[in-house]
């Protein structure tokens, strides 16, 4: 588990990173087989080509305890060139325990540092308050209220955790956990908090970018009780023995859960549609016969296909 150090930890003056962050990060990466680390390094960045969808869209690869409110801010670079629609922000978090905490969401200007590297600047437009919450043992892709489009151009979308709410205080908080994708793009994701000494490029702290993006605002009112197809991934990840796969089905239509190795060979398949709509967990204990490396979970229902990565260690 990657644990964010206490804010009182000694700072590395040249970058403003907390010294313990990189030590814990190296310890975590050493648990992964070489094949997984290489795969993470070469995995392509996933950014939608849709004009108003921009940021780090995932899929999530791993998560860890990291948050230290109050005023713990996370920002992701977004390109709104050619976009004029109202927007909403999305952020993927994992909730080991059920709780809720207050947050703010807003845009910041993108300030050019050098070349194609930008950092968050001043807040642009209004600040919107919201509550982040999730049920226990669940991955949630949170959705902000509709946001006013700041205008065509380059920005950062930011979430600020303004307090701990009903969640255990930490530091770091054990719930929720930050989720990141499989490769880290520098100058795309930043973190700041009181005492951080400024904006911290999260590629110096995490092996991936936090899964956070903007998309066009929804039209109409969505039924909050309706289940949606989702694949939260496997835990533990990396897995040494048995692992639990967490997912949500949208209906009782036929659905399949599969696991493939890096060469595309299927090593596990189960029909899960009879479980019905809602959240489910399937235990897979066949990892002992598998080689260490990177594998891919695949969930399909009603023509919708979702993927998540999982690592097997020895």
Strand content: 35-45%
**Helical amount among residues, as a percent range?**
under 10%
Order of helices and strands: EEHHEEEEEEEEEEEEEEEEEEE
**Low-confidence regions:** 5-49, 219-225
Q: What is the strand tally?
A: 21
Biggest sheet statistics: 6 strands, antiparallel
The radius of gyration is 19 Å
Mean pLDDT: 80
| N-to-C CA distance | 17 Å
Structural class: mainly beta
Please give the domain count: 2
Number of helices: 2
Overall geometric form: globular
Could you please describe the fold and organization of this structure?
- With 314 residues, this protein is mainly beta.
- It folds into two domains: 11-216, no CATH class; 230-312, Immunoglobulin-like (Sandwich), CATH 2.60.40.3080.
- Helices cover 6% and strands 45% of the residues.
- The protein has two helices and 21 strands.
- It has helices at 19-29, 34-42, and strands at 11-12, 17-18, 54-56, 62-64, 72-79, 87-95, 99-114, 117-134, 138-143, 154-161, 177-180, 189-192, 200-201, 212-216, 230-235, 243-249, 255-261, 266-271, 278-284, 293-301, 304-312.
- Strands 3, 4, 6, 9, 11 and 14 form a six-stranded antiparallel beta sheet that branches.
- The longest helix has 11 residues, at 19-29.
Give descriptors for this structure:
6-stranded antiparallel beta sheet, 314 residues, mainly beta, 2 domains, Immunoglobulin-like, 6% helix, single chain
